[in-house]
Write a structure and sequence with these properties.
Layout lengths: L7 E6 L11 E7 L5 H9 L17 E7 L2 E5 L10 H17 L3 E9 L6 H10 L6 E6 L6 H18 L4 E4 L8 H15 L13
């Protein structure tokens, strides 16, 4: 059984002080509101409603933790960039999200979810630049690829990969569709490497992220 099929909801954290102390490694999912982030998590884990899919963008205002066993977690981060969320709500969450991304030692990699029809927006690039100093890997999931023709989706993927290679050469990207269930194996392979690399014995060379 896939590691991700073991996912179970653990808790929602409102502040960094609420994060689970038993965590050893975490893969976090970030993305603009309504990018399909919750659907991605549900598809990877094989649970239809593990992560709530809201018809109102910007609803997720907590760090939601899903346990995979042995101290490993998937973390659903608050969506960013939805203007109708009140400033009084967005501002504190911007600080919590930023602090989590920059200071969480257990975070081994970041999945950035983007709608394939609107990739690498200014907000997406802002997040990538914010995260770059950590030196940790990023994998971009271009979701809703079923909304484009195969040729157009592949062209967008090439453009995104080229843009990443120019600025963030160690980061990767792929197409993904929760509706068609495509891209699951590729995503699992990347995230599985991140989680497996963190489980290595001390002193073993980590070459998974250097390939």
């Amino acid at each position: 059984m896939s590691l991700f099929r073991k996912a179970r909801f653990l808790k929602s954290a409102q502040a960094l002080s609420d994060l689970p102390q038993e965590s050893q490694c975490e893969v976090a999912f970030a993305g603009r509101s309504n990018s399909g982030k919750s659907s991605v998590i549900n598809t990877l884990t094989g649970h239809r409603q593990l992560a709530r899919v809201s018809k109102t963008p910007g609803r997720t205002q907590l760090l939601n933790y899903f346990g995979l066993g042995e101290g490993r977690f998937l973390v659903d981060l608050p969506g960013y960039g939805y203007a109708k969320v009140p400033i009084a709500t967005r501002s504190p969450w911007g600080r919590v999200l930023g602090d989590y991304l920059l200071t969480r030692g257990q975070l081994v990699g970041l999945v950035v979810v983007m709608d394939v029809r609107h990739p690498l927006t200014g907000l997406d690039r802002g997040l990538l630049e914010w995260f770059r100093p950590t030196g940790k890997p990023v994998h971009v999931l271009l979701t809703k690829s079923d909304k484009l023709s195969r040729a157009r989706a592949l062209q967008t993927l090439r453009e995104v990969r080229s843009a990443l290679a120019a600025e963030y050469p160690r980061w990767s990207a792929q197409l993904f569709s929760s509706l068609k269930k495509t891209g699951i194996d590729d995503a699992e392979a990347v995230l599985g490497q991140w989680l497996a690399a963190d489980q290595k014995a001390d002193g073993e060379t980590d070459d998974l992220l250097l390939r």
